[in-house]
Amino acid sequence: MLELTVPEMTCARCRSAISQAIDEIDSGANLHFDMQKKTVSLTTSASADDIRSAIEGAGYAVSYVLQESDSTSCCGSCSA
């Protein structure tokens, strides 16, 4: 899971532009937008840097990126 903060994302047009930019590099990405928090959460096969570049290429600054591990445990030694 990847979560990005996009401070300039304010409306449906912004959402559409960001969706199209991400779709160009990963058409299978699963996107979730939170317009109040100004975040885009997604699962993708693309790298965080590629996603960030795509959004910035669409004209939107990305101020924060959080990438959650696919691991279900803290260190891998315990089972979930």
Quick recap of the structure?
The protein has 80 residues and is an alpha+beta fold. Helix content is 30%, strand content 22%.
Detailed description of the structure:
The chain has 80 residues and is α+β, with helices and mostly antiparallel strands. Helix content is 30%, strand content 22%. It has 2 helices and 4 strands, in the order βαββαβ. Strands 2-3-1-4 form a 4-stranded antiparallel β-sheet, with no helix packed on it. It is globular, with a radius of gyration of 14 Å.
Task: Note poorly predicted spans.
Answer: none
Order of helices and strands: EHEEHE
Rounded radius of gyration (Å): 14 Å
Number of helices: 2
Q: What proportion of the residues is helical, as a percent range?
A: 25-40%
User: The biggest beta sheet, please?
Assistant: 4 strands, antiparallel
The largest sheet has its strands arranged as 2-3-1-4
Mean pLDDT: 89
Give the N-to-C terminal Cα separation. 18 Å
Please state the overall shape, judged from the principal axes of the Cα atoms: globular
Give me the secondary-structure category. Answer: alpha+beta
What proportion of the residues form beta strands (DSSP E)?
15-25%
Using DSSP, what is the number of strands?
4
List keywords for this structure.
80 residues; alpha+beta; four-stranded antiparallel sheet; globular
